[in-house]
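User: Let's play a game. I give you a shape written as tokens, and you guess the letters that built it. Ready? Here's round one.
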């Protein structure tokens, strides 16, 4: 079983449930994508059924290896098919739960990306959640818990997974992906604590995208109105690229705020290579308050982009970039010297 990096508090909580022999009948593992929630759920299933969990913390016994390999009769993992989990899969789960464990102490089903269950599937799942058979455990894994019905959420014990630290993501990228320290650190800096996000960004030409976005934040005057309009059209052309751009900007702004609060005693800034540009280009009124205003604009744009509605992303970016430029460069941004 792969070593789960980070989440020490959560792992300790789950291990205590194993030792006490009183796990909840249903869990809701929440947190952003790519931080190890599914891996933690499988590890929990191993610990629940391992013959001697205290002397096998790494899950190397035959039982744990079979669970990890998907070959144990008492542990199943449900995943979306074509982006959805339908009611027939939930009925199959209920059939699986009807019988007592065959080999282990508990029957465990992990539903990955649980938010992809359609309404019928979620309503069908309620019966199992309301009348859980003894010795059965259900683990819902999701990065979007708000999509689940309130009645489903309320019947599960919620376990929140925090994003990994930039250092943890960097270490994983170096060890498992063979990235150089510099590449791994740069990808981790905008990953938001998600390994999968860091890998996606690396494959999507992240350095060029990062330079584009940070040029607005560090020296909006050099970009100009025309440059902003052109950049807006480029960044908003694809929903994922638009979301990536907002994430890059939000991470940079957060780093600057943390740096102001912690000063030189805090951890190193993963976006430190842009700090000199930021210091020299920012106006005298540049402050944590201004940065919070920028962050607020980014959050508004992010909500509109992520919303399941038809939205003009180009217009969203036009407004967002112009407002940010005026915050960072001052209200005279876009006014020519002749006009002044």
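Assistant: Ready! My guess for every position:
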């Amino acid at each position: 079983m792969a070593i789960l990096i980070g989440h020490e508090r959560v792992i300790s909580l789950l291990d205590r449930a194993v030792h006490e022999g009183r796990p909840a009948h249903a869990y809701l593992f929440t947190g952003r994508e790519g931080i190890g929630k599914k891996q933690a759920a499988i590890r929990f299933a191993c610990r629940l059924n391992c013959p001697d969990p205290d002397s096998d913390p790494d899950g190397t016994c035959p039982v744990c290896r079979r669970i990890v390999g998907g070959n144990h009769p008492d542990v199943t993992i449900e995943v979306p098919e074509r982006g959805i989990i339908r009611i027939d899969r939930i009925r199959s789960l209920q059939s699986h739960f009807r019988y007592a464990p065959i080999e282990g102490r508990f029957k465990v089903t992990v539903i990955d990306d649980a938010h992809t269950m359609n309404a019928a599937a979620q309503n069908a799942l309620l019966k199992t959640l309301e009348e859980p058979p003894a010795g059965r455990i259900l683990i819902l894994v999701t990065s979007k818990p708000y999509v689940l019905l309130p009645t489903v959420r309320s019947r599960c014990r919620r376990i929140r997974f925090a994003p990994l630290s930039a250092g943890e993501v960097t270490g994983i990228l170096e060890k498992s992906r063979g990235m150089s320290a510099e590449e791994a650190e740069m990808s981790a800096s905008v990953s938001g604590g998600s390994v999968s996000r860091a890998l996606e960004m690396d494959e999507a030409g992240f350095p060029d995208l990062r330079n584009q976005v940070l040029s607005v934040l560090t020296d909006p005057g050099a970009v100009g109105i025309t440059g902003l309009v052109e950049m807006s059209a480029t960044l908003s052309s694809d929903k994922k690229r638009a979301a990536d751009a907002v994430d890059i900007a939000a991470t940079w702004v957060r780093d600057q705020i943390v740096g102001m609060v912690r000063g030189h005693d805090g951890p190193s800034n993963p976006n430190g290579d842009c700090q000199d540009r930021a210091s020299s280009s920012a106006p005298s009124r540049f402050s944590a308050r201004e940065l919070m205003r920028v962050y607020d604009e980014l959050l508004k744009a992010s909500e509109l982009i992520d919303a399941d509605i038809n939205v003009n992303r180009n217009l969203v970016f036009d407004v967002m970039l112009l407002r940010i430029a005026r915050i960072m460069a001052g209200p005279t941004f876009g006014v020519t010297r002749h006009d002044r």
